[in-house]
Amino acid sequence: MHNPYNDDVDAMAEIGHKKYLSFSCNGCHGGGGGGGMCPPLTNDAWVYGADDDTVFRLIALGTDELKKQGYKRVRTEVVVGPMPPFGTIIKTSDDLWKVIAFIRTKNPSSMEKVSTPAQTPGE
Ligand code: HEC
Fold first, then answer.
1. CATH of the domain at 102
2. Which residue from 1, 31, 69, 85 has the highest number of Cβ atoms inside 10 Å of its Cβ?
3. For the chain, how many structural domains are there in total?
């Protein structure tokens, strides 16, 4: 899976940020994604990988289901805990890609890795 907004994530920054706040991601990750009681989204450590496919799955499925599908933590963040599933709260994949585009604007170096999964369970 790939983010259709990768060519211009900056154009989605504001709308993606609004959605990020509307889904209460900020309660755990901070308003700008810098972390808080949960891992920062702005640093180079990506627990399961920085690529689009993995990040989409983590947010939609949550930690428990992602691990059931064979993913393992490949990096340890400052905080280790389960991410809840948002697949039923975020109604469309389009909305989720917009949120991910916002995260990319907060973590520009991760753009280099959107197509390189750190792991590909089941393949
Ligand atoms: C209840 C707290 C909580 C909420 C709400 C939450 N997260 Fe998370 N998130 C976590 C935790 C804890 C982790 C670490 C998961 C792990 O280690 O398995 C995480 C991990 C992540 C990661 C991977 C970070 C990394 O460094 O690899 C992303 C991306 C992410 N969350 C995005 C979101 C988005 C987008 C939302 C809103 C739709 C959201 N989170 C809502 C707790 C939360």
1. 1.10.760.10
2. 85
3. 1
